Every structure is written in C-alpha cells, then in structure tokens.
Amino acid sequence: MNESRVIFVSFLFIIGFLIVIFRLIDLQTRDKEILEELIKRQYIREEKVILPRGTIYDSNENILAISIPKLTIFAIPKYIKNKEKVSEELSKILKISKATILRKLKRHKGYVVISDNVDKSLKKEIEALRYRLKEWNIGILDNSKRFYPFNELGGSTIGFVNKITGRGAEGLEYKYNSILGGGLKKIRFIADATGKPLHIIDTLDNISQGKDIVLTIDSNIQYIAEEVLNKYVKLRKPKGALILIVDPNTGDIVANATYPNYNPNKYWKYKIRKNITFQNAYEPGSLAKPFVLAKAIESRNIDLEKKYFCEWGKIKIDNVKIKDHTPFGELTVRDIIVYSSNVGIIKIALEENPKELYDLFFKLGFGKSTGTFPGEASGKLRREYQPVNVAYLSIGQSWTASPIQIAMAYSSIANGGLLLKPRILKKVIDKETGKIEELKPVVIRRVFKKETTDILKGILLDVVEKGTAKRGKLRFYTVAGKTGTAQKYDKELKRLSTEKYYTWFAGFFPVIKPKYTIVILFDEPQKLYEEEKIGGGSVSAPILKDLVDRIMFYKKIKPDKGSD
Asked: Cis omega (within 30 of 0) on the bond before 260?
C-alpha cells in the first residue's frame, strides 16, 4: 500500500471519528431532553404511597382520626435468590404466614407489596434481614394509614379515608379534604431493561401533610348518646334512628348518634354508610305545631286561653278528612299544643295569612340545605296556599325536613328567637406555622321575638310535664319540647300506613337557660306489645330519662327542679 493511500484512509477514519464525537456532543446539548425522556420511559417507573393527613380532634382535643406512619414492604421476586428463606424470615417479623408471602413471591415477577400496614418500629429488623440474607430486592417505603381510635364512635359523621386513594370519601373526611390534605405521593424507581423496578432513586410531589381540625363534637356526650341509642334500637328494632344534640346558643353540633352506623377503620365491610341526620328528610308530624302557634302569637296576639272546638277528632278540609290521634272536644290554645290536637292547630293555622305562614317556615330554614354535611338533604316544602295544604303544613304532613333543620328551628325557640347556622368545625390548626383559625358562630336571622319564645318555652315545658311527652319527664332537670308522629306512605297499599311511623321528640334543656337542643327520631319502631300505640310520646320521649341526667351530670350542671 503506497503512502498516499494510507494517509487517505487515515484521514477518512479521523473524519468519521470526529463526526461521531460531534454527534455525541450534539446529543448531550441539543437532544439531551429527548434522550432523558427516552431513558425515563425505558428505565424509570413510578409507584404511589399514601400521604399523611391532618388530625381530627373533638372539642376536648381528643383524637378522632389520625394518620399513623406505616411502612410498605415490597419485593421484586425476579431478583429474590431464596424465596423460601425470605418468606420464612419475613413471616417472623411481619406476623404474616410464610405461605402467604411465598405465594406472592412466586406469583409475581415484577413489583409486589408484601404488606402496606407495617409498624415503623420494625424498620431496623427488616433492614438487618436484607443485609443478613444479601437480598437487596426487599424494599421499604414510608407510608401512612388513617386510624380511628374510637372505632364506631361518630363513624357516620366523621366518615373515612379511602385506603386506595388516601383521600376522604365520606362524611367530614370528605368535606374537609382541602384542609386535611393527604392523597397519593409518587415514588420513582430505576427499572431494568425489561421494565422491572430495581430500587428507589427519589420522590416527587413534595406535598404538605395538611392541617389539623377541631370539631364541635364532644366525644363523651357522643358516647352517651350512642350507648342510649343502641339500647333503644335493640328494644325497638327500627329501620333507622338518631339522637342529635346541639348547643342552641352557638349552633354547635355536640353529638350525633345514628343507626345505622359504621366503623371507619373497616368501612368496606358496610353496605350502608349514610348519615341520616343530614342526608335524609322526613315528615316532621306535630313538631310543626309550635311554629304555627308562634305565628299566631306574633301576628294577632292570640289568647292562649281561647278555646277551640276540636270536632271530636275529625275535620274535613277541601273535602279531605283529617283525623286526630285522640278525640278532643274543646281545648284551649295552650292545650292544643300540650295534647297535640291536629284539628285544633289546623283551625288556628287557617285563621292566619297563608303566605305569611309559609314565609315563617322558610325563614326557619325548611326547604333549604344548611350546607353542613356532604350530600345533605334540603327537604321538600312548596308554597301551596289552598286550605288543605295549609292544614297539612300545620300538622307536619306532606312536606319533609332533615333532623338538622328541625334542631336549628327548635334552637331558635331555645335561644330567644335566632336561627343559627349549624357549626361542626370549630378550629383549623396549621402545624407548620402555628396559626390557629377559629370559626365563629353565625346568626342567619331573627325569626321570633324573645317574648314569643318565652311563651313557647312555658307551653313546651307543659308538654313534657303533663302532655304527650310526659313519659320523658325528669326528676332533676326541666325539659321543654314536642312529640311528633308521622304515618309513612305504604307504596304497596298506595296509602298512608296504619302500622309504620316516624316518631319524634324535639326540645331543649334546661328550660330557663337552655344548654342543649335535642332531636330524637325513630323510623318504623316496632311495638313492645300488641296493644301498644306507636308515637313520639311512647317511643321517642322516654329516651330522655336515659339521656339528659347523664349529660348534665357529666357537665356538672346543677339540677334546676325539685325531686317531686
């Protein structure tokens, strides 16, 4: 080969080499992002872990819901050298059967979670196991699990966090997602050429833990209410039942016991996860009657001793027959409420301006959701001024209200005439900054004069002392309130049932300076004996005897009546 040919070939090699060098430099600069994206797609994959959320406290700052730091233990079975030994050793630490772990390691080749509920105290033991067995493809991730220390206590109100998404799915956990935080966090793994993950390289999405919240719920009163409710549920076997307790001076929801209820720690085991206090609406029955009387007092200063003939329990309005629960002759205005005469209150209602009467019921908040709870019912209330519709309005039939609406309406009598917005969130605490946001009570409007409520308090006290709620009369404390009974519509018979009822009690205690408003509802309670007459007086009112004393003793409030 002559010298010129060698030089020429060498020159070509140098030119080719320089082209490769320049191309690599070009790739490192101009096409760097394209290459990185290509590598990322081929060799990096993402997994997700659940982030911790803010803590939920009751009004005494007892923990109702908390995110507990946990570990997720995973493995990449393809690279586990001795699956039998690994399964045996992990079984001892995790308290999971060897067979269960071995089955996971044999079924999967890529990434498999051995357990996502491992106490953080076991981290050192698992790390030591990796080093001892030289099994580097056993992995450890920090994770979080939502935990409810009191199990079912307040379950239907607190709600739960979905164990897959890490976000609130029902109740207050859902309502305050934006405050409590949580959710999923992405973890990046380096993967091999087949796409199988090898080890964690970093984390993404630096999300804060969220803020803590303090509720108005008092877990001690909640416990009392649930224990009492469960006692009567076993006795009466209803389809649904509740005890709602509210502070009438602030609108604070102090306790909300419901049946059915559920344990948020095991939410997936329950078919029904509704909170009937907020999410259902029912015919209120005779609970409506005191509001009609209040309108008559304010519009025309009706004489409480005026007598109405109650037609011996039957009245016809617009050719529609309406009956009383008991035949009455003449009753005073006061006794129409005390003994709950349908005919009597209908006659009083028909003497009022129908538009103004409906105005009052809307001002009391009926027909509109309070906005306190996710999926809250609005109830059904329409303006229908025909006499028969006014009659049904006055006896709480053919329209519906949610128990929270009833509680706030009766609280307006207890507090001197103010309709308050229900409050269940008391404080928001930012742990990072130390800032505390306190939510103040909200007055929506005045609905009654104080003088009117003073009159109503005396009448509603008589309801409990000698009227339809006398089975709830207490020895040490005064209670004012009203019973209600509403027939349920039977879809099969296409008429009102004579066997199925809603039974109510709504009121407040003690009477002079009320501390608590209480609403008690049973949906289709069963008879205790064949001849028993189901109603608010026989089913709901007696519960007061098991409930009020315990609450007042717990709060160290002195009795306000003698021991007659």
From this structure: yes
Q: Which residue has the tokens 């056993």?
A: 138
Q: Which residue has tokens 């105005």?
A: 359
Tokens matching residue 246: 């509210």
Query: What tokens were used for 322?
Result: 């309406």
Q: Which two tokens stand for residue 382?
A: 């329409």
- Laid out side by side, the sheet with 240-246 consists of 253-259, 240-246, 516-523, 495-509, 480-490
Domains of the chain, start order: 46-215 (3.90.1310.10), 219-263+280-554 (3.40.710.10)
Query: What share of residues in the chain are helix, strand, coil (percent, to 5)?
Result: 40, 25, 35
Q: Are 379 and 367 in contact (CB under 8 A)?
A: yes
Output the six-digit token pair for 539. Answer: 């089913």
First to last CA, the chain: 131
| Number of other residues whose CB lies within 10 A of the CB of residue 294 | 22
10-residue stretch averages of pLDDT, the chain, 564 residues long: 62 64 60 52 62 93 92 82 88 90 80 83 87 82 87 97 92 96 75 51 57 97 98 97 98 98 96 96 97 97 96 94 94 97 97 97 98 97 96 96 98 98 97 92 97 98 97 96 91 78 97 97 95 94 96 95 63
Cα dihedral: 106, 112, 116, 122 (round 10)? 70
Cα(72)–Cα(119) distance, integer angstroms? 9
Coil/strand/helix, residue 159? coil
The residue behind tokens 């089975």 is: 471
Please tell me the distance from the alpha carbon of residue 429 to that of residue 425, in angstroms, as a whole number: 11
Tens of pLDDT along 317-333? 999 999 999 999 999 99
Tokens of 243: 């005890």
**Residue 535 gets which letter from DSSP?**
S
Of residues 331, 338, 299, 310, the one with CA closest to residue 456: 338
Contact 155, 138 (CB under 8 A): no
Structure tokens, 291: 């509001």
In this structure, are residues 148 and 265 in contact, taking their beta carbons and an 8 Å threshold?
yes
Query: What predicted TM-score, i.e. pTM, was given to this entire model?
Result: 0.85
